[in-house]
Amino acid sequence: MADRTDLRDARTDGKADRAVVRDALGVGVAVGLSGFAFGVTSAGGGLTLTQTCALSLLVFTGASQFALVGALAAGGGAFTAAAGAFFLGVRNAFYGLRLSQLLALPRAVRPFAAQWVIDETAAVALAQPTRRSARIGFVVTGLSLYLLWNLTTLLGALGAEAIGDTDAWGLDAAGPAVFLALLAPMLRTGTERAVAGLAVLLGLGLLPVLPAGVPVLLAALAAPAVLWADGRRRGEGAER
Predict the structure, then answer these.
(1) Which long-range contacts (CB under 8 A, 24 or more apart) does 28-32 make?
(2) Cβ pair 152, 22 in contact under 8 A
(3) 84: which of 68, 126, 214, 239 is 20 to 30 A away, CA to CA?
(4) pLDDT of residue 100
(5) Contact, 63 vs 87, CB < 8 A?
(6) In the chain, what is the greatest distance between 2 CA atoms, to the nearest angstrom?
């Protein structure tokens, strides 16, 4: 009887594992293909093939990479561009705090796993019901996305000259579009939607009057502003 139960559990685990792998590969392939747009945009913005590929190999966080090359292409200084990319990448540190508890990886593995702590791996891992499935989702998403993103970055950079004017193709919008598609389902509360909306207004509103990269930094003020207003509103409601 025990053997039958163990066999049934093994089959259930195997089916669940295959489902996680399928979903993780879907995310990895879908997002990894947008590395082509980054390669084209980066090369079109004046970065060399080596610089473009190094960004994907070492930085590996799409939104920050697009922000960096976009600011540089718009005439922003290196410090401003790097600062904007840095603040966009800070969110990965918060993902890491949660994932470190969920995955509980061995210490020797953590420095390597940190390279894969991004929006997509965090989304897949956090959506899983068990630690086993979370680990599988994290590894499969991270590996497939890292390999495909870097491959398509290389192909995009090599093909930039053949494509011509990258602005005419609108490929620079591919990365932000993917990021927004991943972010939108995560905005579940009114406060989260208010923060996102105010950040968009700040970023777009300040874009014509401030140097490239600075609007992104100031858009981060949306979070404390909305949280302060929300706390004040709740305090007034409690007094009544």
Answers:
(1) 28/120, 28/140, 28/141, 28/142, 28/143, 28/144, 28/145, 28/148, 29/144, 29/148, 31/62, 31/120, 31/145, 31/149, 31/178, 31/182, 32/144, 32/145, 32/147, 32/148, 32/149, 32/151, 32/152
(2) no
(3) 126
(4) 92
(5) no
(6) 74
Tokens 């090369």 found at: 43
* Residues contacting 18, CB < 8 A, separation 6+: none
Residue labelled with tokens 């940190």: 114
Q: What is the pLDDT of residues 27-47, one digit of tens each?
A: 899 888 888 888 988 888 888
CB 53 within 8 A of CB 153: yes
Q: What average pLDDT does this structure show over 133-158? A: 94
Residue 178: its H or E element = helix 174-183
Per-residue pLDDT at 151: 96
pLDDT: is 96 or 237 the higher one?
96
Identity at 169, one-letter amino acid code = W
> For residues 44 and 59, what is the distance between their CA atoms, to the nearest angstrom?
19
Q: Give CA torsion, residues 197, 203, 206, 207, to 10 deg.
A: -140
Three-class HEC string of 218-230: HHCCHHHHHHHHH
Element (H, E) at 134: helix 131-163
pLDDT at res. 14: 76
What is the chain's alpha carbon radius of gyration, rounded to the nearest angstrom? 21
**Residue 141 pLDDT level (bands cut at 50, 70, 90):** very high
